[in-house]
Design goal:
Layout lengths: L24 H4 L47 H4 L7 H5 L1 H8 L17 E2 L7 E6 L2 E8 L7 H14 L10 E6 L6 E6 L6 H10 L13 H16 L12 E5 L10 E5 L47 H17 L5 H18 L14 H10 L10 H11 L2
Antiparallel strand pairs: 1-2, 2-3, 3-5, 4-5, 6-7
Helix pairs in contact: 7-8, 7-11, 10-11
InterPro entries: Kinase-like_dom_sf, Prot_kinase_dom, Ser-Thr/Tyr_kinase_cat_dom, Ser/Thr_Kinases-Pseudokinases
Organism: Aphanomyces invadans
GO molecular function: ATP binding; protein serine/threonine kinase activity
Length: 402
C-alpha cells in the first residue's frame, strides 16, 4: 500500500482576486498558479421548487425556466437549423431557429446578441463568458450554427432540452439559449461560479499562510453538496454523472457568506451532461485533445472498472467511487495517489493503476472520524457491488460535514 503524506496547517479562506474566471485544476498546478476570485457577487436563479442556495440574477431579463415544457416531437429534419449562405442567412438565424425549434422559444435570450463572448480561462474551446447587465454567465457555443450539419445542430438542441430538466441547487442550471454577436454562433447559457474549480480552490487553501495552524482541512460540506447532487441524479433521473473530478466540480461563494463567515458551496456542471442525453441523441463538444479533465492523472478518479483502453459507460457505483476520492481529497487537500505519481511520474503512475486496481487512492486519512474513513474505503472496493449507495455516503457526510 502506498504511503500518503498529508499537508499540515490551518484551514483559511483563499484570498480574493479578480484574475480567475473558472480555470481548471491542471492549470492551477503550474508553478505560478493563477489567484482565486472571491469578489464577484453572482446570484443564480434556479427554476426549482425548493429554495436555491445561490441565484444568478435579480433581473427579470434572465428567464426562469419551466421544467414541464416537453421536448419537441417534431421530425429530425424540422429540429435542425436550415443551412444557407450569406450575411442575410446569419442575420435571420435567430428567427430560423425559433421557427424550426418552437420548443426553445421560452428559453430564448435576446440579450446574448448584444454582448461580447470571451474565452473561459482554462475551459474547453467552446466555453465562453459573457456579461449581461453586470452579471457573468457561462455559455457553451455551437460555432457557425448556420453551417452546422443537421446531425450536429439536432444533437445540440436536443441536449439542451435534456439538461434543462436537471434542476438541483448543487447542479448548475440552464438559463437560456440565444445567438451571439453577428448571429453566427448559437449558445446555451448557465451560471458562472465565481470561485473556479474545486481543484484550484483546494490548491489556494494550501497556499494560505499559517501561524497558529494545527491541520488544514478542506470544507467537507463541499463533498456533501456533490453527494446530494449525485443522489438527485441517481434517484430522480436514473442517471450517472460519470466524471466526478475536481474540474467538473465548481465552487461559489455562498449568498450567506460575509467577512466573518466566508462560506462556499459546490455544484456539478450541467454542461457535462449534454453528452448523456436520452435515446442516444447526444452532443459531443469539440475539444483540443482527448484528455480534457484538467488533472493529468484523471485515472486516479476513475473506478477500477472504468480504467480500460476503451470507453466504458459510467455507473452509479463508479460515481460513488469517484465521490469518495473527491471527499478524501477535500479532507486532506492532497491529490489521490500523490506518492505514486511523485515516484513514478504521470504515465507510469497511470499504468500502475491500470494493473493494480486494488490500490486505494489514500493509504491514510489523518484526523477523519473512523466511521467516515471506513465508509470511504468501502467505496473504493474493486467490485462495484461491494460499494455502498450514494445515499449511504450522503447520510454519513451529513453527520460529519456540518
Amino acid at each position: 500500500m502506498l504511503r500518503h503524506s498529508s499537508y499540515i496547517t490551518r484551514h483559511q479562506q483563499p484570498v480574493a482576486d479578480d484574475d480567475l474566471e473558472a480555470f481548471p485544476y491542471a492549470i492551477a498546478q503550474t508553478p505560478k498558479a493563477l489567484p482565486l476570485l472571491a469578489n464577484t457577487d453572482i446570484n443564480t436563479t434556479h427554476p426549482v421548487a425548493f429554495a436555491p442556495v445561490h441565484s444568478i440574477s435579480d433581473d427579470d431579463d434572465l428567464p426562469v425556466l419551466d421544467a414541464t415544457v416537453p421536448t419537441s416531437t417534431m421530425s429530425s429534419s424540422a429540429l435542425t437549423v436550415p443551412s444557407s449562405d450569406g450575411p442575410s442567412s446569419r442575420h435571420n438565424l435567430p428567427d430560423r431557429i425559433r421557427a424550426s425549434r418552437p420548443d426553445l422559444t421560452d428559453l430564448w435570450m435576446s440579450s446574448l446578441d448584444l454582448v461580447k463572448a470571451n474565452p473561459l480561462k482554462g475551459g474547453d474551446l467552446d466555453l465562453k463568458v459573457v456579461t449581461i447587465q453586470g452579471k457573468k454567465v457561462v455559455v457553451r457555443v455551437l460555432a457557425n450554427a448556420a453551417d452546422a450539419s443537421s446531425t450536429t445542430s439536432h444533437a445540440f438542441f436536443d441536449s439542451i432540452q435534456f439538461i434543462r430538466r436537471i434542476m438541483h441547487p448543487h447542479i448548475t442550471s440552464v438559463l437560456g439559449v440565444g445567438c451571439l454577436q453577428h448571429h453566427e454562433d448559437v449558445a446555451v447559457a448557465t451560471e458562472f461560479m465565481d470561485q473556479g474549480s474545486l481543484g484550484a480552490y483546494l490548491l489556494q487553501l494550501k497556499k494560505q499562510p499559517s501561524s497558529t495552524a494545527a491541520t488544514l482541512r478542506g470544507p467537507l460540506h463541499l463533498a456533501l453538496h456533490i453527494g446530494r447532487a449525485l443522489d438527485y441524479l441517481h434517484t430522480t433521473h436514473n442517471l450517472a454523472f460519470g466524471s466526478i473530478h475536481p474540474d467538473k466540480v465548481l465552487v461559489y461563494r455562498d449568498s450567506t457568506a460575509d467577512d466573518d463567515n466566508p462560506r462556499v458551496g459546490a455544484k456539478l456542471s450541467v454542461f457535462h451532461l449534454m453528452a448523456r442525453g436520452p435515446h442516444g441523441a447526444v452532443y459531443e463538444p469539440k475539444r483540443a485533445c482527448s484528455n480534457t479533465s484538467g488533472l493529468a492523472n484523471n485515472v486516479a478518479f476513475l473506478a477500477p472498472e472504468r480504467r480500460t483502453y476503451t470507453d466504458n459507460e459510467p455507473t452509479m457505483a463508479s460515481d460513488v467511487y469517484a465521490l469518495a476520492v473527491v471527499a478524501a481529497m477535500i479532507w486532506t487537500t492532497e491529490a489521490p495517489h500523490s506518492a505514486l505519481y511523485h515516484e513514478q511520474g504521470l504515465v507510469r503512475g497511470d499504468v500502475f493503476l491500470y494493473n493494480h486496481s486494488d490500490t486505494f487512492p489514500y493509504s491514510s486519512l489523518p484526523g477523519m472520524p473512523t466511521p467516515l474513513a471506513d465508509l470511504l474505503r468501502q467505496c473504493w472496493q474493486v467490485h462495484p457491488a461491494s460499494r455502498p449507495s450514494v445515499a449511504t455516503l450522503v447520510a454519513a457526510l451529513e453527520q460529519f460535514a456540518q
